[in-house]
Amino acid sequence: MDKNITLINNTIAFVKETLKDAEGGHDWFHIERVWKNTRTIAESESCNMLVAELGALLHDIADAKFHNGDEEAGPALAREFLTSQHVDEEVIYQVEMIIRHVSFGGGNTPATFKSPELSVVQDADRLDAMGAIGIARAFHYGGHKNRQLYNPGIPPDMTMSKEKYRKSNAPTLNHFYEKLLLLKDLMNTETGRRMASRRHAFMQTYLIEFLSEWEGG
Questions:
Q1: Nearest to residue 78, comparing CAs of 102, 57, 97, 58?
Q2: Are 124 and 37 in contact (CB under 8 A)?
Q3: The whole model's pTM is what?
Q4: What does the DSSP 8-state code read for residue 65?
Q5: At 14, which CATH number?
Q6: Could you tell me the end-to-end alpha-carbon distance of the chain, in angstroms, rounded to an integer?
Q7: Averages of pLDDT over each 10 residues, the chain, 217 residues
Q8: Which domain holds residue 114?
Q9: Nearest C-alpha neighbor of 59 from the set 9, 144, 121
């Protein structure tokens, strides 16, 4: 068997075991969807497929919001695993950088690292925060954090810093305006933009219906 296929299979097994008790919006199935999106987008991009696939599979291996805000927990765990698999140092470094820079983080933080592989994985991850699945994930996480569905008296905050964004406990519907509806225009790749367009439209339709029903419509 090709050594890269073996590495991907070993990585899948590692991620499944590590995230077996994860919150439903950030579990193995989220990783699998992002991985599938990554492979679809990468077909039209000039990038290192192995780095992109490993970045997708490991991007949420230790999400900071579930590890007391520790943003180095993910890169460190990924490096430990990939080192155990005898992966080249340059590949490990590129995967670490994807993990460090893939997140939205409030959308107001300037990018300090760029690579073709990060662009692909970032689009793939953002797509999973959009559309029908994105809506389901938003409300699942909101329930996990015991947040209100919606509160007309608490408007969205469009100027949040990365730190404030991570600590926000605003109603879940605010998240649509603070992140989800912004993602379409933040896509890096043509394929990502095309895939995002449909999901964005679905979210807009959903919000119209939600707000209508809220008012008794």
A1: 58
A2: yes
A3: 0.91
A4: G
A5: 1.10.3210.50
A6: 59
A7: 91 96 91 98 95 97 69 91 97 96 70 91 97 97 95 91 79 96 96 97 98 94
A8: 3-214
A9: 121
